Amino acid sequence: MNFGGFVPVSTVDWRGRSVCTVFLRGCPVRCHYCHNLPLQSGQDFRDTEEVLDMIRSSRMVISGVIFSGGEPTMQKNALIALADGCRTMGLKVGVQTNGVFPVTLRALIERGLLDLVHLDIKTRWEHYPHLFRVGAEVTAHVRESLTLCMEANDDGRLEEFQVVVTLFPGREDDVYHIAKEIGDHDLVLNQGVEGNIPPLKFEELKKIADKLRRPVKIRTREDGEVGYVDNRIIIADSIVLTDILQARRNY
Fold it and tell me: What CATH number belongs to 3-250?
């Protein structure tokens, strides 16, 4: 696998869980605001068993693993092998993805190897080619991933599913178009940060959420991730200690 990095313990990548995070290199999309630019390309090939050993080193303090990037689903065979290894350890498996490789997501779901998907919908569909210089087939793949994950979440094959929309000043209207397509599935309003552009503040994201008239999660650098609905802030879940203890017993 083309390895991008490893965080032994994270309490922010999976709401309510202590996890480790594995980064895989490579991504076919060039987002101008990407916070992991060095992982879009480059090479650091490792055996999957070496990476599983890293995960085992965190085993006693985590209950799950998040695979991120780059774009982790770009490396289908390696990701399946890693997810299968995590299952053997009794760990939950989550993926942060841009949805460009639905075939990988489908394979993970069909094998029962996936518990959480964070799907990054970057803009309304008609803007994908212009903003990210990708062809129409890429937009179609992302739409396929969205449909796949919603259906799997609805029928219980995918335990958790979130659509994440990264918002910048002047692009606020995108989220209203996206929200219409996802029904009551979880929606995250993510504060976009790029260069010298002033990011949207928490209060501004709250106003966007109020117009949506639905529960959302608001994620900012200043406040982390909190639930929000009807002008009320819902305190974020804490790490579930009993969940970690149960995972230890299963190992």
Answer: 3.20.20.70
SS3 content of the chain, % helix, strand, coil (to 5): 40, 25, 35
Rg (CA), the chain: 18
* Per-residue tens of pLDDT for the chain, all 251 residues: 999 999 999 988 898 899 999 999 998 887 766 777 777 889 999 999 999 999 999 999 999 999 999 999 999 999 999 999 999 999 999 999 999 999 999 999 999 999 999 999 988 888 887 776 667 788 899 999 999 999 999 999 999 999 999 998 888 888 999 999 999 999 999 998 877 788 999 999 999 999 999 999 999 888 788 888 887 887 654 434 444 445 445 54
Strand 224-229 relative to strand 232-234, pairing:
antiparallel
Instruction: Give the domain ranges of the chain.
Output: 3-250
The model's pTM is 0.88
